[in-house]
Amino acid sequence: MIDLDMKEIKDKFEESVINNIDKQNAHKILSFLVNEKCDFIEDIISDYLDLFTFDYEEFVNKYTKLNEKYNGEFLKEARANMDLLEEFYY
Q: Would you say the pTM of this structure is higher than 0.85?
């Protein structure tokens, strides 16, 4: 179960980011991350909530390219250095 501090998230992110998250799309992205065995989803939400504003297909395409770049170890590398998630924006 994901345990998030919503006040912290609201303080950290612009209201526009929060308002631009489509719940169904975010659910698809979360399901994708769970299927990929991502074990730091809470950290992603807390620090990179705006990733959930990406369209699901775009998110998956970017993830796939990054995973190829990191030889199938993107999540492992990103867990160690979450700054790698910035590459989604390029």
A: yes
- With contact defined as beta carbons under 8 Å apart, do 22 and 50 qualify? no
Look at residue 6 and tell me if it is in a domain.
Answer: no
> How many folded domains does the chain comprise?
1
> In angstroms, what CA-CA distances link 35 with 4, 29, 39, 41?
20, 10, 10, 12
Q: Is residue 75 part of a domain?
A: yes
Mean pLDDT of the chain: 92
For 66-87, b/e burial (b = at least 16 CB within 10 A) is: bbeeeeeebbeebeeeeebbee
Taking Cα atoms as reference points, which of 13, 82, 6, 90 lies closest to residue 41?
82
pLDDT of residue 4: 62
